Amino acid sequence: MPKLRGSILLVDDEEKILKALGRALREAGHEVVETASARQAQKLLGERTFDLFIVDNVMPEKSGLELIREYVGSTSDGRGAVGLGPSEDRAQIVMMTAHATVESAIEAMKLGAFDYLQKPFEIDELLVVVRRALDLQRLRTEYRYLLSERDEQFDHYGIIGASRAMGEVIQRAELVAETKSTVLITGETGTGKELVARAIHDRSAQRDMPLIKVNCAAIPETLLESELFGHVRGAFTGAVGTKKGKFALADGGTIFLDEIGTMSLTLQSKLLRVLQEREFEPLGAERTERVDLRVIAATNRDLRQMVSDGKFQEDLFYRLNVIPIAIPPLRERREDIPPLVEHFLRKHAQRTGRRIERIDEGVLADLQQYDWPGNVRELENTIERAVVLTPGPVVTSRAISIVGAASPQATGLPSLKLRQNIEWVERETIRRALENAGGVKKDAAELMGISQRALSYYLAKYRID
Ligand SMILES: Nc1ncnc2c1ncn2[C@@H]1O[C@H](COP(=O)(O)OP(=O)(O)OP(=O)(O)O)[C@@H](O)[C@H]1O
Ligand SMILES: [Mg+2]
Asked: Of 111, 128, 153, which residue constitutes the final position of a domain?
């Protein structure tokens, strides 16, 4: 276990003890501020933060218990506390006491002290208590940090953008989060539909309940119904057990129906009923289940067009399209590109441990020109690759390869770029074929004119599932 060093305020009116304990703590590697005066201690506590406050109880100016009471009072109501909230930077407290005053020690514990030491004690005993107190203090600091980070993420929902269009998307997501209304998120592939769906759930009153995602395109038609509504044993060949459906799992929370445009007309009618009645029957079951949840659906298809083509039920469309959120493609909000680039650079530099300071301005201009058919996902992939390929602190055109961006000055590493471009095209082609085939591999392979075995190879290569 690594040695944990902390800042300690040590208070004892008996100079000899003060010196001895101070020395021992310093030898153990801690930063120690010591004082024999309770007044001075009070002043110090108001001026700066400590990890640990060790105080003797019986002192002439003020008792240790009084000091503790004042300190706890000043940090819990926010007065004199540094930082954001109650107990924000409050030190752990350890009281030293002679046998006769153990009652005050217990009083101190009630006030929130970490522990007490009964005099006389061995130095080792002190060191153990100190280490445990500092451990706890470190956990508390980390926990607080995580909380603040989480709050920050909720504030921005992890959605980066500077454009008016994204501002409106965020605003609408915020407003709808407060309701339980059904939301339909539309946008091209990679525009951030799932990100927005999660943001809505995370902001809602149901955020502690589950968000259950169903990718309607990835599940074969024959299984989707039981996936959504569950089944009982023997409901169909192969139904060996009873299984809860996603609707039941999401009860109380949110169900996210991704790629809703790929759902068959039959299943669409069943879904319509759940949306209308909030009830359904698991496959093969005689009972009806009721659910209380929010539905968020997403699609990159034009559902209105599908309705006119007879491929999507009109009633279902209106049931889903209660609160529409349309995310524009990245090429229609190019102002978002620089902050996104910045965000992804930082994210992937951190992830890979690279020291990347910035991106060459010419390169950024190129990125802003490009049309990004794969939208934010493609931009992120491009930046991730660039971070991996960049040795120095500045990302230059050598590390950037974007499909179709015929940048004349991009001369570096042509073969590498070619390969990456080909890989990107392959991966996107497969993704789209799968999507168009409603997730059925056989059909996707046929669409691309390759064998199913070849498709399996590519799926493994690009880790697509
Ligand atoms: N505005 C944004 N800020 C930060 N990251 C974003 C933003 N938009 C998208 N991303 C990131 O881009 C990737 C793709 O986003 P997401 O999966 O939400 O897209 P999608 O619209 O659901 O795509 P598809 O239709 O292909 O499923 C994710 O990693 C997401 O975190
Ligand atoms: Mg998605």
From this structure: 153
User: At 443, which CATH number?
Assistant: 1.10.10.60
Domain extent at residue 77? 7-153
54 inside domain: yes
What is the three-class DSSP state of 178? coil
Closest residue to atom 6 of ligand 1, CA basis: 192
Å from CA of 13 to ligand 2 middle: 66
Number of helices (H) and strands (E), helices first, in the chain?
18, 16
Q: Are residues 191 and 322 in the same domain?
A: yes
Q: Tell me, in angstroms, the distance from the centre of ligand 1 to residue 356's CA.
A: 23
287 and 323 together in one domain: yes
Please check whether residues 323 and 388 belong to one and the same domain.
Answer: no
Q: Is 380 in the pocket of ligand 1 (CB under 6 A)?
A: yes
From CA 294, how far away is CA 300, in angstroms rounded?
20
Q: Is the CB of 378 under 6 A from ligand 1?
A: no
Per residue in 40-52, pLDDT (tens digit) is 999 999 888 889 9
Q: Terminal CA-to-CA distance of the chain, rounded, Å?
A: 41
* Residue bearing the CA closest to ligand 1, atom 30: 192
Determine contact, residues 232/282, Cβ cutoff 8 Å.
yes
In short, whether 187's Cβ falls inside 6 Å of ligand 1 is yes
Write out pLDDT tens, residues 318-345: 999 999 999 999 999 999 999 999 999 9
Find the DSSP H helices in 213-332. 221-229, 246-249, 265-277, 303-308, 314-320
Q: Is the CB of 204 under 6 A from ligand 1?
A: no
Tell the residue nearest (CA) to atom 7 of ligand 1. 192
Task: Read off the pTM.
Answer: 0.59
